[in-house]
Design goal:
Elements lengths: L1 E11 L2 E11 L7 E2 L1 H16 L2 H7 L1 E4 L6
Antiparallel strand pairs: 1-2, 2-3, 2-4
Helix pairs in contact: 1-2
Length: 71
């Protein structure tokens, strides 16, 4: 079983957060996996972005705002 760092993107409304997690590679069919803590971390970031709590989301990842581009 190997662990490797990975950046997951979480999008809610006009915000995006880059969250660092560890992917777990194993010989099982459902590989790679997230740890339970990393899955909860992604859920917490999503909930914080949804409620507009950018400070809480910023403690768990890098937060960005999306700006529409007129073409």
């Amino acid at each position: 079983m190997n662990k490797r760092p990975h950046t997951k993107i979480v999008r809610e409304g006009q915000y995006i957060a880059e969250v660092e997690v560890e992917l777990i590679d194993s010989d099982e069919d459902w590989s790679p996996n997230l740890s339970l803590d990393d899955a909860f971390k992604l859920d917490d970031v999503r909930a914080a972005l949804r409620s507009g709590d950018l400070r809480a989301a910023g403690r768990l990842g890098r937060v960005f705002t999306l700006t529409p581009v007129a073409v």
